[in-house]
Structure formats: C-alpha cells, structure tokens
C-alpha cells in the first residue's frame, strides 16, 4: 500500500462520531428492501396469505417510497437535515415494530407502507449530512457512504434469512431495534443546523414534476420505469419458485446483494470511464434481458435459477449506477431535483412488478413472470436506442464526485 492510499484510508476511517452515526443508520436503511425477501413464503404460510398478497409488502413499500421521493427535497429544504433524518428514522422504528406485532397480512402491508415513507425521508438526506460532517474531504465521505450502501444491500437479505429462520416477525423486530439505536445516535451526536447556517434554499414543490418535461430526463425515467419492473421481478418474485426456507433464501440473496454492491461501486465507474454511458446501458440492459429469459427456462432447476439470480445482481449493480449517473448529466437542473423526479418514477415500476408477477404465475405458470420481466427490460433497451440523440448529453463527464453520489443515492431502490 502506498503512502497516499494509506493516508486516504486513514481519512476515511478517521471520522467524527456524528458521521459514523449516520453511516450506521444508512446501512440499516438500505437493508430495508431486501430484509423481507427471505420471509415472504413464511408470511404467506403463517398468515394464510396468497403469494400475491405477500408481494404487496413490496408494492406498498415501493409505491409510498416513490411518491414520497417527489416531495422529500421540498420537505428537507425546510426542516433541515437532522430533523428530516430523525423523522424518517422514527417512522421506520414505529412501523417496523407495528408490522412485527401484526396478526394479519393486511396490517403488515399497511405498516410496510409507512416504513417506505420513513425510508424515503432518511435516504434522501443521509448523503448530504455525511458530506457536511465528514473530515478528509468529500471524496472520503462519499466512499464511506457507498460502503454503507453496499453493506446494507448485501446484509439485508442475510439478516432477514437468519432472523426469519426463527420467525417471520424477527426481521421486523430487528430493524426496529437497530433503527432505534441509530435514532439515539443521531439525536445525541449530530449537531443541528442553525437558523441560517448551511440551510439549503427552499425547493419548490412542483420542481420534480416540471423536471420530467425535459426530454432526456423523461426518456431516462421511462427506461428506468420498465427496468425497475425487471429488477423487482428478479428480487421479489424469485423466493416463491425457489422453494427454499428463510435461511436458504437469505444466503441466495446475500450473494445477489454482494454482486450488486461490488459492480455498482467498482465495475460501473470503470465501464463508464471507457465507454459512452448510453453504450453501457444498452449492453447491460440487453444482458439483463437474456438473464431473465434464462431464469424463465431455469425456473424448475434450483441451482440454475440461483445462478441467474446472482448473475442478475452483477448486472443490476452496473445499471443502477450508470442510469443514475446519466440522470445527473441529462439536464442542467439541480441534481437533487432531477434525482427526485427520476427516482419517483422508477419506484412506481418497482411497485407494480411484484404483485403483477405472482398474478401472472398463478394464471400462466412459474416461468411467465421472468419472460414478462425480460420484455420490460427489452422495452428499456428500445427506449435507450430510440432516444440516443436526445441522450447524447449524458455521455459527458461527471461534474463532481459529490453530484455523482447524490444521484446514485436518490436512484438506489432502498
């Protein structure tokens, strides 16, 4: 290790306690999406629910997260970072605890929706807070934040499987406890902003909606809408045809999450530095389409389907990062506004996919949701191809590391 790299590592690790408090809470927040994945079959069995009803745990969560994303920049620019973080964490603790204590699937679905609101408020504010409080410059803060993001994505399904192996209520109780610790840490360690100090200028409520009228951003949002349908078929529907217990599902999607985290942080920047982003998008979306077709044909072979899921995670990591980098360069709008608009649309696609997948499986058979997801990914390929002239701007260089990370943070499906 060189002296420069050793110094860089020290700058990342030598951070104020407030930064570690927010980073810890960020890990737990990003765990939220994959946490319930391994326990979907258990919830269906214990609460006498159909697969379509249990998939509503994803739909309610993602629908509320998507709608909230349109308004989080408006709210946080008025409340301030610390209040927004604490409000989001408090909602997650409250609704995760209520979900753990529920005795019917309808209640769990409703409380999961409240959890989605809390998560949207938290993740929309966490990055700016870490950058503002970190030592060693924005680069060190961004690496720390992306590490927290990757850990959360990978650990969520594993923790869900380990706790869900005991009871489906375990992951909900675990999240409530961990987020309560995060709430206390931020309350005690993070300084409040002064009335005028470091307070962002208020953002108009209509800003994210007007942003979608920009042609390049609108095209990317449409591509992301269909891409996210494919994403959540792979993540949310797969536990049912796999037929594994909670522990087996936890390890499977831990592999998926590790692959996604690694390619998001390391492979995607390398590819976009060597190729046009639109080229990377076309190639990765085409590869995702083929992966989903392979999953459809492999649905009755557990080892083959697991391989498709894990390989899909590698592809999804590239797409998450490059899509959100592209959004950042698509317009001259403030990055937070563009990312909020894009994220709101893409989460709608995620909300539609899980329940649609199980409904298709019930009528047409287990392979069909994967073929439908492949069709959705193919639509995204066509959108990127057809809009190549409008999207020419996204192939320019990233303005700054901070802006890149802000876009990636808002675009991640947490």
UniProtKB/TrEMBL annotation:
One Pfam family in the UniProt entry: MFS_1
Transmembrane segments: 19-36, 56-77, 84-101, 113-135, 142-166, 172-190, 211-237, 249-268, 280-297, 303-323, 344-364, 370-391
Top-level taxon in the UniProt lineage: Bacteria
Residue span, Major facilitator superfamily (MFS) profile domain: 18-392
Entry membrane topology: Multi-pass membrane protein
UniProt keyword annotations, A-Z: Membrane, Transmembrane, Transmembrane helix
UniProt GO molecular function: transmembrane transporter activity
Intracellular or extracellular location(s): Cell membrane
Any one of the GO CC terms: plasma membrane
Protein name (record): Predicted arabinose efflux permease, MFS family
Species of the source: Paramicrobacterium humi
Higher taxonomy: Bacteria, Bacillati, Actinomycetota, Actinomycetes, Micrococcales
């Amino acid at each position: 290790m060189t002296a420069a790299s050793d110094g860089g590592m020290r700058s990342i690790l030598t951070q104020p306690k407030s930064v570690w408090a927010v980073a810890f809470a960020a890990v737990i927040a990003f765990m939220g999406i994959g946490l319930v994945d391994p326990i979907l079959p258990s919830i269906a069995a214990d609460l006498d629910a159909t697969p379509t009803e249990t998939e509503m745990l994803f739909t309610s969560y993602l629908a509320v997260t998507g709608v909230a994303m349109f308004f989080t920049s408006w709210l946080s620019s008025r409340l301030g970072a610390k209040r927004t973080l604490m409000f989001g964490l408090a909602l997650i603790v409250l609704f995760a605890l209520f979900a753990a204590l529920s005795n019917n699937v309808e209640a769990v679905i409703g409380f999961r929706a409240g959890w989605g609101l809390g998560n949207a408020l938290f993740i929309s504010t966490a990055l700016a807070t870490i950058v503002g409080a970190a030592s060693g410059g924005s680069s060190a803060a961004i690496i720390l934040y992306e590490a927290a993001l990757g850990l959360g994505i990978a650990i969520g399904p594993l923790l869900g499987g380990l706790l869900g192996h005991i009871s489906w209520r375990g992951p909900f109780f675990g999240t409530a406890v961990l987020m309560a610790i995060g709430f206390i840490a931020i309350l005690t360690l993070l300084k409040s902003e002064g009335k005028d100090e470091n307070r962002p200028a208020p953002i108009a409520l209509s800003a994210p909606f007007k942003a979608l009228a920009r042609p390049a951003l609108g095209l990317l949002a449409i591509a992301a809408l269909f891409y996210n349908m494919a994403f959540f078929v792979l993540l949310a529907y797969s536990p049912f045809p796999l037929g594994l217990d909670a522990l087996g599902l936890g390890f499977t999607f831990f592999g998926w999450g590790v692959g996604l985290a690694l390619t998001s942080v390391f492979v995607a920047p390398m590819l976009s530095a060597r190729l046009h982003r639109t080229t990377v998008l076309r190639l990765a979306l085409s590869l995702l389409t083929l992966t989903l077709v392979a999953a459809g044909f492999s649905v009755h072979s557990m080892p083959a389907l697991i391989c498709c899921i894990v390989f899909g995670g590698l592809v999804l990591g590239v797409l998450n990062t490059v899509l959100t980098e592209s959004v950042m360069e698509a317009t001259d709008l403030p990055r937070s506004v563009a990312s909020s608009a894009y994220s709101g649309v893409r989460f709608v696609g995620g909300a539609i996919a899980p329940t649609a997948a199980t409904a298709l499986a019930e009528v047409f058979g287990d392979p069909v949701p994967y073929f439908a997801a492949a069709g959705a990914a193919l639509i995204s390929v066509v959108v990127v191809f057809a809009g190549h002239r409008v999207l020419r701007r996204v192939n320019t260089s990233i303005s700054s590391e901070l802006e890149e990370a802000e876009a990636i943070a808002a675009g991640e499906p947490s």
